[in-house]
Amino acid sequence: MAKKRVLVKFSGEALAGEAGHGIDTQILNYISQEIKSLVDADIEVGIVIGGGNIIRGVTAAKDGIIKRTSADYMGMLATVINAVAMQEACEHAGLNARLQTAIKMEQIAEPYINRKAVRHLEKGRVVIFGAGTGNPFFTTDTAATLRAIEIGAEVIIKATKVDGVYDKDPAKYSDAVKLPEISYEEALMDHIKVMDDTSIALAKDNNLPIIVCDMNRKGNILDIVNGNLKNCSIVK
Q1: What is the pLDDT of residues 62-102, one digit of tens each?
Q2: Residues 80, 131 contacting (CB under 8 angstroms)
Q3: Model pTM score
């Protein structure tokens, strides 16, 4: 069944490309074109991007010099940097895009207001949500699930470097088996890394399907929205 409103979650690392850090503008351009294909098909799109290409709160706080709360706020600011870049890329592709942040920074973005975000979506604007949930100790996976529920998205699409969920890391194990469909309970198992436990539990409580797909397969996200689930995995 075709979906009308979706939230797409990208990792910060996805923007870094082969360099492994920073922002590769060609990848930004590619992502914006994928998003444009959704908008052109009358799909309302929200976006959440991580900040791992710049800094991760957990990593910054690991030796105790920087407190975890401060480190997580640093990570939130990193997501805003990526979100600003994504907004620019979307506008370069001819889309109308709005950036809302969970931490107020009026010179850069609108503060997150749910009703305003929904109105933007209804008008065909892409809405990018930055600064996570605005709280430390919560990942951008949780932020993506929270925003998806708040805006009434019918599905959350986690666009990654792999084409779905596997029973173990396919980058490390050649015998890893793809799981086309799994339950929320299975997704919470330690050896299956879909999203963090909080985000999966939140999705379960609100019956929000999570689809994991390869962002590098051109046209894949649009295919998924149109009901073609061949090149992905679904958690429900």
Answers
A1: 999 999 999 999 999 999 999 999 999 999 999 999 999 99
A2: yes
A3: 0.94
